[in-house]
Write a structure and sequence with these properties.
Blueprint lengths: L1 H20 L4 E3 L11 H7 L15 H12 L1 E3 L2 E2 L11 E6 L3 E6 L4 E7 L3 H4 L3 H5 L2 E7 L1 H6 L7 H22 L2 E6 L4 H8 L7 E9 L1
Antiparallel strand pairs: 1-6, 2-3, 4-5, 4-7, 5-6, 7-9, 8-9
Helix pairs in contact: 2-7, 3-7
This protein binds flavin mononucleotide.
The site of flavin mononucleotide has 9 residues, from strand 8.
Length: 215
């Protein structure tokens, strides 16, 4: 009898732990900070990558995450964005956010995160030591659907995604500095792992990653 009670307690504790470990399928982000912060020229003057060794390891809050994502790919006017997108179309570079719980895709439409893969995969995305230390890793991946949906027809669509990623990551360098967050751009990533894990088709490109950690 005693053994059965113990087994029941053990199993229900296990079930609760398993349920708690399940990442949320969708996360509504809090409103981003849209004013204040460091003067822009001070942030430009301070812009630097956090060193790979000794990368800042403190956790980034949901409010900070919200501000970072909005400043990389958010709407700041009706149908217009904080960074320029060719011919005024929707953002054609997706941002995936890898953290402790899993990898989420940023949905600018309702400023939320959609689960793409569960589990802590940060070190699998980039084998460098700072990827494991970082609070979050942003992953930039081209998204042709968005780009062509509104009729964008330039022969230079691939170049466009690289230009947009440059604008998005530079914006992130400045805003992260303003929030006291260390950041590092990196080209290094396990592209095959990223493609498989996130179901990225062969005609889309995982472009780069951006590691972030609170100082
Ligand atoms: C195109 C590009 C690719 C990079 N790739 C990596 C990388 O794979 N791993 C890494 O640790 N840093 C990478 N970096 C970060 C650079 O090493 C860093 O930006 C450079 O040393 C200049 O330092 P700063 O950003 O402080 O000016 C990359 C930077 C750029 C611009």
């Amino acid at each position: 009898m005693k053994r059965r009670v113990f087994a029941a307690i053990f199993l229900s504790a296990f079930a609760i732990a398993a349920a708690q470990a399940e990442p949320a399928s969708s996360i509504r982000l809090p409103a981003p900070q849209k004013s204040g912060g460091k003067p822009i020229l001070d942030a430009v003057a301070a812009r630097a990558s956090a060193p790979g060794s000794g990368f800042p390891t403190q956790a980034i809050s949901q409010e900070e995450l919200s501000t970072l994502l909005w400043s990389a790919s958010g709407r700041n006017r009706p149908d217009k964005w904080v960074v320029p997108f060719g011919q005024g179309v929707d953002p054609y570079v997706d941002i995936y956010v890898a953290g402790e719980e899993g990898i989420y895709r940023y949905a600018w439409q309702d400023h939320s995160l959609k689960l793409a893969a569960g589990g802590d995969l940060r070190a699998r995305i980039n084998p460098q030591g700072f990827a494991k230390a970082a609070s979050h890793i942003f992953l930039f991946v081209s998204n042709k659907d968005s780009r062509t949906k509104k009729g964008a027809n330039s022969p230079h669509l691939v170049k466009w995604t690289h230009v947009a990623t440059g604008a998005m990551t530079q914006q992130l360098y400045l805003v992260s500095d303003s929030l006291g967050i260390g950041a590092r751009y990196a080209e290094t990533m396990d592209v095959n792992f990223v493609r498989q894990t996130l179901n990225i088709p062969s005609d889309e490109e995982p472009i780069c990653i951006f590691a972030l950690g609170k100082r």
